Queue: 2 jobs
Job 1
Amino acid sequence: MNAPSRINSALDVRDQFPAIANWHYLDSAATAQKPQAVIDAITAAYARDYATVHRGVYERSASMTASYEAARGAASGLIGGQPNELVFARGATEAINLVARALPKDGRSRVLVSQLEHHSNIVPWQLAGYEVDAVSLTDDGRIDLTAAEAMLTGEHRVVAFGHVSNVLGSILDAKAAAEIAHSKGALLLLDGCQAVPRMPVDVAAIGADFYAFSAHKLYGPTGIGCLWGRAELLATLPPWQGGGGMIEKVTFEETTFLDAPGRFEAGTPHIVGAVGLHAAVDWVEALSLDAIHAHESALVAEARAALSSVGGVTLYGPEDSAGIVSFNVDGVHPHDTATILDDAGVAVRAGHHCAQPLMRWLGVEATARASFAAHSDSSDIAALVRGIEQVKRIFG
Ligand SMILES: Cc1ncc(COP(=O)(O)O)c(C=O)c1O
């Protein structure tokens, strides 16, 4: 009895999420539900404060520009960076594409990823002409850094690893990864999509070179994400898309560009998205990412224990996963599992989770995945377990 009530009371924020009343939403790793504070900030930005940024001379535009730039500072500050080190992109996917496209190869045409990467951290490198090498995982589903060290050569331009796996929840020892990357002159890019909403991140302490994340997984809006890059590195990157807003001077003969980060933001940006992201950053900071991490870790421990006790359920990933539990009910396709859970008011993701190489590594076609957020509690786990028992009854 003690553990569930502790978890229920640890973060009392469920009432702040209007879209999950009477629903057990366990798909936050796909996209997070939005607290009222974020919804209100977005509404006010459209209904009261809206104007373009960086262009208008009128007061409303100046104040919207200040809000947009304040959001940049907040998003960068959340991960220990400076405002001028943060580029707004459409999401983590676009952020990684930016680096893959804009970073000069400097004679190194290989990238080292791992077997657990999301397709967003594989395909952009392939499209940019890199040879992709993939590091194996440990038995419990972590990126094997000993293997990484052995595989890394002077031909690798970038080591690109997921900070937290979107399938297994495994947490990378990011500082060790940075040391390994730098020992061979490679840069470290971290895909922080699943880490930023779930644990404190400090890019300086890690020694990262690039860090990508999406607002919509951090309780913010879709359509906006962030690329953090070390200031001196960003300064060396040429623009990758052209248009308004990123230039200094345009003639038909030649165009000169703004300094970073402006030179990477062509066209009218997602102004209201930035305001919503700022509200989301304020919201997680008020709760504290340490508290969110402790809360989700306790839920993972409770869920793994509960699913194990049902019997006939295979769990993937390490015990200390960050907020994510992938599983299969033996002999049942995860799509069937997810459909029956849906009938029981429980939303989980089923499929390859945009990580097909990882599915092959695990030797499965797909998994079901329950992922937690600050609003999750023991009632979600109880509903999940009741649903799994129903799956087992139906499939004998
Ligand atoms: C680990 C990881 N990387 C990258 C992405 C891509 O993020 P987005 O679709 O927001 O660009 C996701 C989203 O599922 C993810 O979980």
Job 2
Amino acid sequence: MSRYLDMVDDPAHVKKLTLEQMTKLAEEIREELIIKLSKHGGHVGPNLGVVELTLALHYAFSTPKDKLIWDVSHQSYVHKLLTGRKNRFHTIRTTDGLNGFALRSESEHDCYGAGHAGTALSAALGMAAARDKLGTSEHIVCIFGDAALTNGISFEALNNIAHTTKRFIGILNDNEFSIAKNVGAISGYLNKLITHPRYAQLQKDIARWMSRLPKGDLALKLARKAEEGVKGAVAEVALEHAPGDMPGDGRGGYGSSLIFEELGIRYLGPIDGHDLPTLINCLEFAKNYDRPIVLHVLTKKGKGFEAALKHPEKFHGLGPYDAQTGDTPPAKPGAPPNYQDVFGQALVRLCQKDNSLVGITAAMPSGTGLKALEKAMPDRYFDVGIAEEHAVIFAAGMATMGFHPVVAIYSTFLQRAFDCIVHDVALQDLPVIFCMDRAGLSCNDGPTHHGLFDIAYLRCVPNVIAMAPVDEDEMVDMMFTATHQQHPTFIRYPRGAAEGVPIKEQPRLLEIGKAEVIRNFAPQGGRKVALFGLGNLCRLARQVAEQLTAEGFNCAVINPRFTKPIDAGTTEFFARGADAVMTFEDHVLMGGYGSSVLELLNEKGITTPVVRIGWPDQFIEHGTTVDSLRQKYGLTVDNAVAQVKAVLNGEVVPVSAPHALVGVG
Ligand SMILES: Cc1ncc(C[n+]2csc(CCOP(=O)(O)OP(=O)(O)O)c2C)c(N)n1
């Protein structure tokens, strides 16, 4: 039997469906998500939660004219299915396939790209302001999660909405989860709203009104009723405390006014986010409303898939799984651990010996590995919500009081806190330790998540010590070393599996700014190449050295360890002795480690040619594997060997040539 999903390939088709047909379509979409995503993984839970909401949005609004702006946009898969990308859906997050987030270049229905949290309200408000100026009539609809609402930018936008426009529709998609359970006062506040008996009544009232009112202008009448109902509820809520609620709980119990109403934004909800008719009617109301409005929609992360409902954190985003059971393949015996897990366990051991250490995460306890600390020493663990700027300044505050905070934030998300690093941590020279996971490629997530800029954005900041380990044992040495510093210290390490080396019982204190010479030049041999392999790319440097040696070159391999300060003495020594220098880094070439080597050689008047291997000056797309992207951009033994030979032959290789990752200084 053919499915409605097979017939729906455009939002216009959704509008032609009856409620029953849409309900059936919702089921088919869930099945499609569960089965298609099982092969490569993805954001399963968040998307299963927004099936009805997305259908209702496309029923009530007309993209691309109307604008749907998704916060983070990891929950836009259903939107992709309904906007002409159904036949390519199985390619999502794979090489040359659909991106896992909204992408302007992918579809005219994706009006705004994202991947980082908290941007949607500001972007949507900008669009609304532009629309008002242009005098056009499109609807601007912003869909943001309860955890995105804990982000500072979201509040900066909320503060600005009522002053900027009269027409703005926000959809607060509240599933009570961030990746892990949402934390903080905002989540407590939302919980108060959704559990209040008056709001439970509202849901029933809406259903009753819908069944009684005649067709035609049903939506409008319903909406008016709903608005009155909310007004009444708000007034009553404002006057009373719920039974058992503490008026003095710091938030005034239920006596507090609704945040949105206080900000000049009409609040409507909570609304059952799986009830299609209610959703559609509320959206129709919002559409015709002449003030900014937020609909508070309650959804269930993972709805329709037992395993995802049971394990919401795991199913927020995951790799391949069994579509029946939700089981994920067991780790291969003897497989190396992930960097994040080594980090988490090492931090627990360090915290056990050093009372000044605390761990801080911005809503990423599992992804960063800090969950181990939460479990072992909960009083030394802080989850501050999706609030990277706050996390960094919070750490700065603790550091002024004698603590040694360890801030674990992915390289890409730390970008947001750059000013806090400069103004709060580095300028005051505070001993905050930053552990940056996902430094390098986050391959299937793509450009929003690749951590390819941190060396560049940290190199220019005074007082900073920055390092990159070649393996997990050295990462623990670096963590240990960082705990002995009285300056801001940064450690970058890649996503996923480490090298599988044993970890020493007692970590080693490293000398700051000192590189490790892995292999010196042989006393005899051909032309000399000095290869500086930073972090995880040291392995590539070694492979290149092997290949060159086999071809008669005389190679030295150096593990730089530090990107700031770089080891000037060792770098100068090898550069003077070599016919060519090569640098390798999992980072953009522009301003990265290789650039720092070039600057040093220039200062010293050393003219040895430098071949830099790294990522070109362009945003790198997503891909199925790291290897596929390295292959495409030439981060390979063959390309590196060819480039250094060309340079030794006196050829000039263009810097940042498309799809080549070699620059010659
Ligand atoms: C700046 C930033 N920090 C962290 C993340 C990682 N992250 C992706 S989704 C997510 C949780 C989002 O929760 P919510 O907004 O409630 O949406 P839901 O997944 O529950 O639908 C987090 C923390 C991110 N994308 N951006």
